[in-house]
Write a structure and sequence with these properties.
Blueprint lengths: L5 E6 L6 H14 L4 E5 H7 L8 H20 L3 E5 L5 H11 L2 E7 L2 H7 L4 H6 L21 E4 L5 H14 L5
Parallel strand pairs: 1-3, 1-4, 2-3, 4-5
Helix pairs in contact: 3-4
């Protein structure tokens, strides 16, 4: 099947559901026979960005590295699913401009919900002062100005979110 590469960039707070949602979209793409690759922020940080800290400069560099790999794959007609907090709007826009075929998915859940979920215990550590510059606690998360898709994971089902994303990919002609 001929397909067009596109980067689907899932952004949002830690615990908002980026990984869960990207994995669910990946399962749907696999079921439908598409070529895709997933770049999860945590996994990329352990491998491609090992040694980077959490300063704004290091976070931007991490996102640039993810964006570079996503661009290579996208231009070779692979659908790329990126799940990364990517808290700063300007770096997301820089990556959007570099890649071109880019769909931003704002995985939107209130901070209170993300803190309740706290799957890795990171919010607790940040609130105790054990983690500094934690996005949403003592470092900002800059909301996307105009995402192609917004998923409210605190009040819509996983299936509803997947449907929104798949519909947008079809509307933009990345999927038939």
């Amino acid at each position: 099947m001929k397909q067009t590469g596109v980067t689907i960039w899932f952004t949002g707070l830690s615990g908002a559901g980026k990984t869960t949602l990207s994995q669910a979209v990946a399962a749907k793409l696999k079921e439908d026979g598409y070529k895709f690759e997933t770049l999860d922020g945590d996994i990329v940080r352990q491998n491609l960005s090992k040694g980077l800290g959490f300063s704004k400069e290091d976070r931007d560099e991490n996102i640039r590295r993810i964006g570079f790999v996503a661009h290579l794959l996208t231009r070779n007609d692979v659908i790329v699913l990126v799940a990364a907090i990517s808290p700063y709007r300007n770096i997301r826009e820089e990556i959007r401009q570099r890649i071109g075929r880019f769909v931003e998915v704002f995985v939107n859940a209130p901070l209170s919900v993300c803190e309740e979920r706290d799957p890795k215990g990171l919010y607790q550590k940040a609130r105790r002062g054990e983690i500094k510059s934690f996005t949403g606690v003592d470092d900002p998360y800059e909301l996307p100005s105009n995402p192609e898709v917004e998923c409210h994971t605190d009040n819509e089902t996983l299936e509803e979110s997947i449907s929104k994303i798949m519909s947008k990919l079809t509307e933009l002609k990345y999927l038939p």
